[in-house]
Amino acid sequence: MTGSDGPHREPGSDVRAAGSASERAREEEEERAVEQALALVGGSSGTGRSDRSGGSGERPSRSRDPRAPWDSRDSRDSRDEDLNARRSNDSHTGPGSAPHADRSSGSDPCDGRDSDLRAGRAAPAPGREQPPHPDQAFPGDPGKTPPPSWDRARAVAARAGRGGAPATIRLPLDRALGHVLAEALGALTDLPSFDTSAMDGWAVAGPGPWAFEAGAGLLAGRGPAAALPDGTAVRIATGARVPPETTAVIRSEHAHVDEARGLLHARRSVVTGQDIRPRGQECRSGEQLVPAGTVVTPAVLGLAAAAGYDALPVVPRPRVDILVLGDELLNAGLPHDGLIRDALGPMLGPWLRALGAEVSGPRRLGDDAGALRSALTSSDADLIVTTGGTAAGPVDHVHPVLDALGAELLVDGVAVRPGHPMLLARLSPDGPYLVGLPGNPLAAVSGLLTLAEPLLAGIAGRPAQDPYRALVHAEVHGHPHDTRLVPVVHRPGRAGGRDHVAPLRYNGPAMLRGIAAADGLAVVPPGGVRSGTEVEILDLPWAPATPWTEGCFT
């Protein structure tokens, strides 16, 4: 048996026993918890954030609703001391290349499910306190409500991000790339706005042969030409305005010019309207071109420009502050004397930008509760992302600081491996959100995809990524109770076989080697999946890139 965040397999655990009373009770409890959390998150009150912008592309105020906690925190004082002593901390790593050292003396992050479970730490909303349900408690912590499932935690994060009406700014085309359209784009003109030639050649009127005059003919960008008399032809360039009364355009290679007689002959039969782009062929003025919520791609920019736009109405990018916690972290050089390199600082900024965020940081605070509190209270971001410090060790300050600030915990722990001690909070009813990531690298990736990605998608007005199903040609071990996220790479089918995904090695919570070679994460249900079956997949932001995963990775 391996660890709480690594492969964990017991005999017969491939398929969860159907109809188990305890399993049904667990699922019913999760249903009740998520329904309450989603109902609370869906409120409509809240005041606007301070205005950072005007209409020139800077950020206006955003109004969002206050959020309610996921579960009650008043059971925290009765937390079992033995569980605290045994709790393995996903937010700090053991020796190696991970960014945070394990501060639980003698604890093994792969020591079983009890080792790092935390629940019931959120400050209760007035009148919404939930009593414990001992019959639905999770192992090792009697009386504690189990954490939400992976998909339900994502749903809470997405709902939180959609809580307020998105702000709208107008950005010039050269600054709008990657933003989300706040409004649908309607054509401001017919496309094309006049009849144009689709080819270099000859505009002809009536049947041939056609008389022509020597000269440059009609070029693109010129004004309207005189009507073309029947039986005549004129040279025309691609994109030039077609003269009135034109029957067709004959391509240069399909025409024979009799210079001596001044006549043009067609080498092929001529069809009325051939090689002419009629006005409004692509769209008519006012026709919707792109719906609201579309991510602005280079192609969308080109279409918008063609349709007459100089600027686009978009949702501002969510602003994110990154705070890296931990006294054991080095910014440069080789690990030494118990110090290790910070792996998350260099990784999180680009990853969050790939999710559409405007990123500030990382700021490295060490294990300083005062510095953390100051950073949280001074932030004007939409989201603060912290690394490490989300468990219950002696220098894990995230929960105590959130308590002191009166923050509301929307999600406090998730039934997923790696990354169980992740959290989502809101510092105040109109203040920023906070996603607390565990300090182990792959556990932090799990937190990004579970909480940060759907939250940012909601704030930015874009749909969150939905998992899709893919065939897997290998058995993937699962956790007995929790969802497991496993790095995978897509493989083309051979000899007519289906495309599939292959799970990668080096998928422990403290490892990055597997995720660096991956283009997706398999969402493995409790009990695992068998070879030859399908598994849910989440793409990574760089999924279209060509994978490099030969050798020992699979």
Explain the overall architecture.
The protein is α+β, with helices and mostly antiparallel strands. The chain folds into four domains: 21-164 and 317-460, Molybdenum Cofactor Biosythetic Enzyme, Chain A; 169-184 and 288-315, Alpha-Beta Complex (Molybdopterin biosynthesis moea protein, domain 2); 196-277, Molybdopterin biosynthesis moeA protein, domain 3, CATH 2.170.190.11; 468-553, MoeA, C-terminal, domain IV (Beta-clip, Beta Barrel), CATH 2.40.340. 18% of the residues lie in helices and 20% in strands. The protein is built from nine helices and 27 strands. The chain has a six-stranded mixed sheet with strand order 8-5-7-6-10-9, with no helix packed on it. A six-stranded mixed sheet has the order 17-14-18-22-21-19, sandwiched between helices. α1 packs parallel to α3 (150-161). Residues 1-21, 43-140 and 545-554 have low confidence and may be disordered.
Question: Which properties best describe this structure?
Answer:
single chain; 554 residues; alpha+beta; Molybdenum Cofactor Biosythetic Enzyme, Chain A; Molybdopterin biosynthesis moea protein, domain 2; Molybdopterin biosynthesis moeA protein, domain 3; 4 domains; six-stranded mixed β-sheet; 18% helix; 20% strand; disordered N terminus; disordered C terminus
